[in-house]
Amino acid sequence: MRVELEPSYVLHSRPYRETSMIIYVLTQEHGVVHMVSRGARKKGNNNLQPFTKMYLSWSGRGDLVLLTKIEHERSRYTSNFRAQVQCFYLHELILKLIPKLSPEPELFDLYEYTLDSMINNPADEHVLRNFEMRLLAIMGHPLQLRYDYISDDEIEAQLLYRYDLDLGPTQIAVQRTQWNVVSGDLLIHLNDNSLTENILPEAKAFLRGLVKHYLQGKPLMTRRLLKVN
Questions:
Q1: Which parts of the chain are beta strand (E)?
Q2: What are the backbone dihedrals phi and psi of residue 121, each rounded to the nearest 5 degrees, phi first?
Q3: pLDDT digits over 191-206, tens only?
Q4: Which domain holds residue 38?
Q5: What is the number of other CB atoms lying within 10 angstroms of the CB of residue 147?
Q6: Which of 1, 18, 9 is CA-nearest to residue 66?
Q7: What is the tens place of the pLDDT at every residue in 155-212?
Q8: Cα separations (Å) of 21 from 43, 46, 94?
Q9: Cα gap 162→169, rounded to integer Å
Q10: Do residues 33 and 19 both lie within one domain?
Q11: Final residue before a domain boundary, out of 52, 75, 98
């Protein structure tokens, strides 16, 4: 199989043999693809940088294909440390939660939008929360936020709920210190995509709990570099 000049971003790379590299790439039409880039580690070869939109061509079948051509569109590189680590956080989530060779054009668009937003405003926590929610939906786990799944009543801001995976929220009477016990106010704001500053800490704890569940014990290295928002 040959693919010509597909929009792509490098998510991760590692050395391979003497002068080559294996690169993990998010592509627009083919999802995450693993490629061999021959001679990529030779002196002066600096073509495969993160945060840079490229058009890549490759050939081959199976788990590992051969990169044959690179054309650059533009770099979104930033020297802001926080922005860099948060972007690498996106990369880790994609690589650990999305199976390779799973075509997800929506994911490519989401990544590109989030990358631009975070580089332009690294302190905006809304961007990461939106990415986490939409990534879960792309994985096939959209959040059900509007109704109590047992009573079918609409969520009420002043009530307390337990969020059950794959089912949604149901009202509880007693506060518990668990990531999936949340306020109705949070559920309403998440559903309306209208998170306010005062509710962002609760949103962070809830979405991080969901992400941790689906990671199934896989660690995130970026959290060791920075306390990611």
A1: 2-16, 20-27, 31-37, 52-59, 65-75, 160-164, 168-172, 181-183
A2: -150, 80
A3: 999 999 999 999 999 9
A4: 2-75
A5: 15
A6: 1
A7: 999 999 999 998 999 999 887 778 999 999 999 999 999 999 999 999 999 999 999 9
A8: 13, 12, 20
A9: 5
A10: yes
A11: 75
Q: Write down which residue in 75, 96, 127 finishes a domain.
A: 75
Q: Could you tell me which of 194, 115, 203, 187 has the C-alpha nearest to residue 155?
A: 187
Specify the number of domains making up the chain: 2
Q: How many residues does the chain have?
A: 229
- Can you give the pTM of this predicted structure? 0.90
CATH number at residue 7: 2.40.50.140
140 and 28 share a domain? no
In whole angstroms, what is the distance from residue 213 CA to residue 191 CA? Answer: 21
**Whether residues 71 and 6 fall in one domain:** yes
* CATH number (domain holding residue 96): 1.20.1440.120
DSSP-derived secondary structure letter, 155: P
Q: Which of 30, 33, 31, 32 is nearest to 67 (CA)?
A: 33
Query: Are 103 and 154 contained in the same domain?
Result: yes
